Amino acid sequence: MKKLGIKKETKSIWEGRVPLNPQSVETLIKNGYEVYVESSNIRIYKDEEYKKVGAIITDDISHCDFIIGVKEIKMDELIPDKPQLFFSHTIKGQDYNMHLLQYILDNNVTLFDYEKIIDDEGRRLVFFGKFAGIAGMVDSLYGVGQRLKQHYDIETPFMNIKQSYQYDSIIVAKESIKKAGEEITKNGLPKDIAPFVIFLMGYGNVAEGCRDILNELPIEEIDPDDLSKLDKNFNNHKIYLATFKEKHMIERKDGSEFDLQHYFHNGEAYKSKLGKYLPYASMYMNAIFWAAEYPVFLDKSELLNLQKQGKLQMIGDVTCDIEGSIKATVKSTEPDNPIYIYDAENGKITDGFKGDGIPDCAIDHLPCEFPKESSDAFSNVLMPFIEKILDADFSKSIDKSELPNEIKKSCIAHQGKLEKDFLYLEEFLK
Q1: Are 201 and 242 in contact (CB under 8 A)?
Q2: Which string of b and e fits 44-57 if b means at least 16 CB within 10 Å?
Q3: Do both 145 and 259 map to the same domain?
Q4: Which of 403, 428, 424 is nearest to 110 (CA)?
Q5: Among 11, 61, 80, 154, which residue's Cβ finds the most Cβ atoms within 10 Å?
Q6: How far apart are alpha carbons 237 and 194 in whole angstroms?
Q7: Distances (CA, A) of 108 to 235, 392, 410, 413
Q8: 3-state secondary structure of 318
Q9: How many domains does the chain have?
Q10: Same domain, yes or no, for 41 and 156?
């Protein structure tokens, strides 16, 4: 009988998410598998809830055939010679996790990463992205209200919005934001901050989550190329939303015609053209995939210009790439200390809402602020793969295993060696 081990989360005290909820665990047990759940006192689903459906609560899952978690598993908690699935944050060659990847190779851990469970068109199949967008949008709106009040002494309906983790559910959060929207519709926003324009960078799952929250506000969509018209004709009873796609953000360095697929594979051939739009931004919501070869969109010079202009009230860096497309994102934050001020004059940061500079909300694990809803959704999309994973023979090469193609693509390392699609990581391990 195959045994599945569910790892407790130890990266952050805020991490209450689970990869499989009790309902999914019950299904596995009824289908003839054993499930061992590592005991945890921060998990959104308690030990007793798993025990009730037949799982075995334990402090040792080393005997299990396959181990799953959510966030990175610490090196001293990884089990050598075992296949394990979690978000490793290694596929971009992230410097802070290369020691983890090297440890995985040195100890013959077979590593699968949720981020690379994709279909034939490269679309992710198992993700928390929408919930990151939901929580990131709520927290950023909260941040705007606090920044305007604490630094400028400007009162707005945003002040009544709380942080995501302070709401019992997404439904309750939406009700609160809807009330703020009704107040904006009725009384308007202060002329000092109008027109209030939100830049939504991207159109994928994360952006969809942002939109899910924005739907509760009096939003008027505006094409990025029409932003210049707002100066003379705007309504302070509305919030303007400009959605940016790649065609708005980048251009070829050699001046030739833009091609989206070419950009995906040749990011170094492009440069940002976002500068002409940035002076209109009140909020900058970052919901794009970014890699090191892609252009930087908010470099230090752009940030300095924006700081001097004084219109930008919040960067919501949902993707949280440290020193990535936004150079103000120099660290990740936690829900109990979500925002810092980046001073582009000297590169220094100050936690909180006061001070010269631009606020940046860069929480690394946003979906944990809505742990139940995000876990249930994640469990539902992961479950179709679990039995096939448990039935696989990991003594074989991944290519010759019975694993579904989607899972094969997500294998970064097997038996101490990088899989062929991830050999590029050798350069980052040096």
Answers
A1: no
A2: bbebebbeebebee
A3: yes
A4: 403
A5: 61
A6: 9
A7: 61, 17, 16, 8
A8: coil
A9: 2
A10: no
The pLDDT tens digits for 92-139 are 888 888 999 999 999 999 999 999 999 988 889 999 989 999 999 999
Question: Nearest CA to 130 among 380, 388, 412?
Answer: 380
What integer is the mean pLDDT of 12-17? 94
Give the closest residue to 80 by CA, choosing from 427, 430, 413: 413
Averaged over 29-35, what is the pLDDT? 98
* Count, residues in the chain: 430
CATH for 409: 3.40.50.720
Q: CA dist 61 to 7, 228, 253, 292, Å?
A: 8, 59, 52, 37
- Residues 301-359: tens digit of each pLDDT: 999 999 999 999 999 999 999 999 999 999 999 999 999 999 999 999 999 999 999 99
Residue pair 297/273 in contact by the 8 Å Cβ criterion:
no
49, 77: one domain: yes
420 and 277 co-located in one domain: no
Report the C-alpha gap between 33 and 3 in whole angstroms.
Answer: 6
Which position has the token pair 């997404």? 170
- Same domain, yes or no, for 318 and 409? no
| Whole-angstrom distance, CA of residue 312 vs CA of residue 74 | 38
Query: CA-to-CA distance for 315 and 326, rounded, in angstroms?
Result: 9
Residue 36 burial class via C-beta count within 10 angstroms: exposed 0-12, middle 13-18, buried 19 and up: buried
Q: Which DSSP letter does residue 8 get?
A: P
Of the candidates 172, 218, 174, 175, the one whose C-alpha atom is nearest the C-alpha of residue 196 is 218
For residue 430, pLDDT over 80 is answered with no
Range of the domain at 246: 129-369
The tokens for 129 are: 């992205």
**Which residues are registered as beta bridge partners of 361?**
316, 339
Taking alpha carbons only, the member of 394, 335, 389, 329 closest to residue 360 is 329
Domain end point (choices 326, 349, 369): 369
Tokens read off for 367: 């979906």
The helix (H) or strand (E) run that includes residue 284 is strand 283-286
Among 340, 369, 398, the domain-final residue is 369
Q: What is the CA radius of gyration of the chain?
A: 23
- Look up residue 345 and give its amino acid: E
